[in-house]
Amino acid sequence: MATQEFTITLPEHMAELVRSKVADGEYDSPSEVIQDSLEALLEPDPRIEKWLREEVGPAIDAYRADPSRLIPIEDVVVGLKERHARAIARH
User: Domains in the chain: how many in total?
Assistant: First the structure.
């Protein structure tokens, strides 16, 4: 596989994580840590796939079956603000 050299800047906590993965022997080099991390980004996240299948899909189907069940965003925002105000008042 062809490679290309990159220079990257990481926040200190991420740079330390890369260094510790190499120091612990999990990886041979910082490049391997970054490569493995990027490959993980290309794989579907099973948690998101499950959420889409179990919650989003059925919600879309329910909306299509009965669009009158849709709550306008303005009503949702008002409800959230009221709920937030009640929560603050309790504390």
Answer: 2
**Residue 31 domain-assigned?**
yes
The H-or-E segment that residue 21 falls in is helix 12-23
User: pTM for the whole thing?
Assistant: 0.54
The full 3-state SS of 23-57, as one line of letters, equals HCCCCCCHHHHHHHHHHHHHCCCHHHHHHHHHHHH
What is the C-alpha separation between 70 and 40, in angstroms, rounded? 36
Instruction: Report residue 18 as tokens.
Output: 């890369």
Domain containing residue 37: 12-42
Residues 57, 34 within the same domain: no
Give the pLDDT confidence of 40-90 residue by residue, as tens digits: 999 999 999 999 999 999 999 999 999 998 899 999 999 999 999 999 999
